[in-house]
Input
Amino acid sequence: MDTLDPHAVRTEIAAGTPFALADDPAPHHGGSNGSNGSNGSGNPRERLLGLVRRFPGKRLLVVGDMVADEYLVGSPASISREAPVLILAHSHEFTVPGGATNPGANARTLGAEVSLAGVIGEDAAGERLRGKLGGLGIHMDGLLSEPGRPTSTKTRILAGGTQVVQQQIVRVDRVDRSEISEACCRDMIAYLRRTIPVVDAIIISDYENGVINQPIIDAIIPLATELGKVVTVDSHGDLARFQHATAVTPNQPEAEATLGVRISDRASLERAGARLLAETQAKGVLITRGAEGMSLFERDRPPLHIPASNLTEVADPTGAGDTVAATFTLALVAGAQMAEAAVLSNIAAGLVVRRVGCATNTPEELSVAVTALVEA
Output
């Protein structure tokens, strides 16, 4: 693995903000396992590495909009005589888990036991997606089919020769955004009620493709809260629909859309974070900001601003928010305080943006990056 720029995370560590937690008397907002996240050491690096070591075996349920991400790859051959566009010589194509399947794939690659709840069509795209999920060992009992509803598919066409980085030149979306039927919703709620008691955490991954409606939300959060489960919400839609989650993880445009404001500086960012805490009644709000890093807001604590861990080797930001949601959630279940979970997810996102398409990290890759970035 290439060496990451250590300055990005160490600037915050040097200030003592995210890691002055070993003797913190305030309760953490992690999972139901009772761990205090200290891992027996005040050493920041060892604490984070200890959290990663506890990822395997955690049980995670991801509920939301399942998407097949298709990639068609070719090399520029000539200019078309029909229109001023490139003609690509087809090289290869592949399908990877997208949408709500991506945080599931991320969590599974990090060692968690993962179950999915959503809708996949009975079509070729759905068959390919199921094949990929099955190959990862992800549980698919909660994946339903609805007559006439196709698999949501996003097709990206990449161009580039063997000597250059492949670039995305166009994307074609085939998505049915209508709400799922009452029968499908009823079956999914029954599955959720059976499954939530036996998992450690739930991620609600809402791409506004019709799966996450109010009955689904009401079936998840109250029961999960009653049972002491971690609930993370990663939604492209109105965040105020999700009340009393453990954490919400919007990117900056999603936060702006929910609040109807523009975040232009540190002051407006902190006002937005405070408002989201109040309007969602979540325990924490993690706003991801691309090249600007991410900002964590918790009740009764000052905001924590974490610079991006990788600014120099960005190939594709697709799916980085899903990586954040998965890593953040697993860290909480493993006993992290929210600041620790945010730092880990920031490092994880810095790794996946180096790769084309929705990518994942192994525990070994994440541990190597933590060792490179975080001073003992």
Q: What stands out?
A: Confidence is low (pLDDT under 50) at residues 1-40. The radius of gyration is 20 Å. DSSP finds eleven helices and 13 strands in the chain. Residues 58 and 112 are 5 Å apart (CA to CA).
